[in-house]
Design goal:
The protein has helices spanning 11-26, 87-94, 98-121, 146-163, 167-173, 221-243; strands at 31-37, 44-61, 66-84, 179-184, 199-204, 207-212. The chain is of the alpha/beta class and 249 residues long. Helix 3 runs antiparallel to helix 4.
């Protein structure tokens, strides 16, 4: 039986959350917290993170007749990390079915081939959200490639059947974040059974390695701002616990 913490959480799951927090901040999501509740929904995320963004604009100084750079802040990107320490934990959540999994295996190969073609011929799919190509997210649906859209449509249908009424299903349905990741122990979760559009981060020693990139999901600015506020609330609760701060109700 895996060792559990006082709250019933296994040590392995707790460690995955810690590594997810580290990975998020090391990859530009510098605002992050664990156990974050989704705004207006009864869903708690293992780790939620926010990537601050600034826009650089050139403005003309009429007095000095020279250009100057002005930084303006805009609402940044959001990400969710769900941690799975064992295959049993993931399968219980996903309600795995043999026929669905076999079909997803075949579709996975077709999707990889189509995505390779899109990388070669459509540079516009790049989101430009990382200095390092291996971490840059891609929007494969941007070009409107019909064959790829048919594959993704069927993957979404099967993924919905596989993950219906689970936490993965609810988070995607609510358009909760721009990016979604499953964080797992090595070999626990094959890429073919990932919820549609989710990325996969695997633990390798004391760090996480990106095995499957997530797809980019468009989310309104207001929802991203509410998401950031929820991270701030969760972080404040954590600090209060550490400092022994308690407010009377």
């Amino acid at each position: 039986m895996p060792a559990s913490t006082a709250g019933g959480e296994t040590q392995a799951h707790r460690e995955l959350k810690r590594l997810a927090l580290l990975w998020a901040q090391a990859n530009g999501f510098r605002i992050a917290a664990a156990e974050v509740s989704l705004p207006n929904q009864r869903v708690r995320m293992d780790v939620a993170a926010y990537q601050p963004q600034r826009v650089r604009e050139a403005q003309r100084d009429e007095r000095r007749k020279s250009d100057r750079l002005v930084w303006k802040t805009k609402i940044g990107a959001t990400a969710i990390f769900e941690c799975k320490a064992s295959r049993t934990d993931f399968v219980r959540d996903a309600r795995s079915m043999k026929v669905t999994l076999e079909r997803l295996d075949r579709l996975h190969e077709r999707r990889l081939k189509a995505e390779h073609e899109l990388r070669l011929h459509y540079p516009s799919i790049r989101n430009g959200d990382s200095l390092f190509q291996e971490y840059e997210t891609l929007n494969f649906e941007r070009p409107g490639y019909e064959r790829y859209e048919k594959i993704i449509h069927e993957v979404r249908q099967l993924s919905a059947r596989l993950h219906r009424n689970t936490k993965f299903d609810r988070l995607a349905k609510y358009a909760a974040a721009n990016l979604f990741y499953v964080v797992a122990e090595p070999g626990v979760i094959p890429a073919t059974v990932l919820p549609c559009g989710w990325g996969l981060l695997e633990r390798e020693g004391g760090e996480l390695t990106l095995k499957t990139k997530p797809h980019w999901h468009e989310v309104p600015e207001g929802a991203r701002l509410a998401f950031l506020q929820r991270i701030a609330l969760a972080a404040t609760r954590c600090v209060n616990r550490e400092q022994g701060i308690v407010f009377a109700r």
